[in-house]
Amino acid sequence: MELSFEHLTRAYEGKTVLDLEHGSIKSGSRTGIIGPNGAGKSTLLNLIAGLDQATSGKIYYNGEARIPGEAITLVFQTPYLISATVEKNIAYPLKLRGWAEEKIEERVGFLCEELNLTGMRKKKAWKLSGGETQKVALARALSFHPRLLLLDEPTANIDPATTAEIEKMLIKINEEEKTTVVLITHNLAQARRTCDRCLFLKGGKLIEEGNAQQILAAPKNELTRKFIAGELLI
Ligand SMILES: Nc1ncnc2c1ncn2[C@@H]1O[C@H](COP(=O)(O)OP(=O)(O)OP(=O)(O)O)[C@@H](O)[C@H]1O
Description:
P-loop_NTPase, single chain, 8 helices, 25% strand, ABC_transporter-like_ATP-bd, 6-stranded mixed β-sheet, Rossmann fold, nucleotide-binding, transport
């Protein structure tokens, strides 16, 4: 799904925390959103998801200013599962959408295989580790073939092996199902491994956007360079 922003702002109690003149997230991309604490990354993601309202300006989804709720899904840093088994959690959005049982089984089976969850399908959600919980949350988010997957620091508390499984899944689902992926991350190595495009935000402004490998290796903007080099003082 193609996204574009025009004069998009969000202010809290008169203080503008996001102010994007123009910007876009290309259809079919895996776009990393990077930037220091307080840059406005989560604010932007919440606006895209429709969880928050812009103070001014608009977001266009495939050229339309109306949010296509059914096509968008979100994964947060701290996921919440329903108090049921792994497989029931993943099947839940599909049951809500009235999918046939065999289609549900096919999709849940595929997602469990890809995320190494097959052996714990019957396990209760509250008995899972943090990494397992996040993988189930991702599987559930992907269950209904979303056109846009938004992730807010999904691996912040996750070990490297599970992080690698999650990153592999993001790439697979993007390549094979053409889901557009937008990933907020403080892990620049993760952005390098996972993203093909990148937006750098600072102080609510879009400082640089473009090819992820190019921005992460040789940014054009001095602020971006300092951030990536770990030299940026906020
Ligand atoms: N509900 C709110 N009320 C008031 N201020 C808010 C609210 N939500 C966010 N802010 C402010 O907006 C600014 C941007 O916050 P945001 O969470 O979008 O930044 P971020 O780039 O995601 O930061 P981080 O990397 O720390 O998660 C911050 O200064 C924050 O304090």
